[in-house]
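Morning. Coffee machine broken again, so started the prediction first thing and wrote up yesterday's gels while waiting. Chain of 326 residues, entered below exactly as on the submission form.
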Amino acid sequence: MRKTITTAVIAAGLSIVGMSQAMAQTDIRYSIWANPGEAQYEGALEFKRVVEEESKGRFSVSVYGAEQLGTPRELFTQLALGVTQISASGDPGIKEIEYLALPYLMKGMKNYSEVLDTDFGAEWNEKLIDEREIRLLGFMPRNPRQISANIDLNSIEDLKGLKLRSPERDYYVKSLSALGANPTPMAFGEVYTGLQAGVVDGQENPIETIYAAKFYEVQNSIAMVNYITKPAYVMIGNSFWEGLSAEDQALLKKANDASTALIEKTLPAQTDKMIAEMKAAGITFTYPDTKPFIEATQSVRDELGSNIWGEETYKKIAEIGQKNFD
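Came back before lunch.
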């Protein structure tokens, strides 16, 4: 009888331990705009791998691609409420960070990092926390934005009067206007049919977006003008973040760094493959002289940069943005 009771007690104890371990596991919902197979989606999976392996099962990470959980703005609410813990998108939540994407202002991701490491960059993160209850965890590399059209774009003159789809942000509209085009704000989901029906003559996006959305099926040419360099922003709910130990906060930062490193490693080869496939499909790639593009958009940088940050801070940002890190 004693043996039976002892066995039962041990079994019950093991069951309680198992239940405690299961209850101790923290689930992280990670939303991203990218689709499986894209470098950024693979970066999110690398985040998952590092977190799950190094936490030894204390965390589980579920990655939701293609904005399954909602738009970036909807995700901000989810992050603040703790429904979703992490989101990666092109929207950082406040203008002070978003307008770093002014045309030809920033040369690359390291320039973004240095700007955010300044005192005013730290103030922006505090503003994010105060206003939206979210914070910036890090960046996801993306390719610069290029311009596709139904004609070959060999120089800035070829953009004159061209009706180009623009995202619904003033810096996109003003930039394309400064380049001589006729910008037409349009929701992303309408772009393919808009191009197909001739409502617009072209559009602008990173190569991976042009490829994934199959815009090359209804365009003839892509001009590699690198007119906006903009990362995706990895945001985390502040209440979730503050509930983590310092050790776990460090783990999530480490995982995001690993994610970034993987994307930086895989994106160039993936981009070359996408360009080769689009060329095979009949797309012409042109490489116009960008100096006239840079000069034409100077007024946009000066106007919006001074308005958003103030003239002194804008000058500091412009100086950091033009540093060469490579």
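Residues 192 and 213 are 8 Å apart (CA to CA). Going to sketch it on the whiteboard this afternoon.
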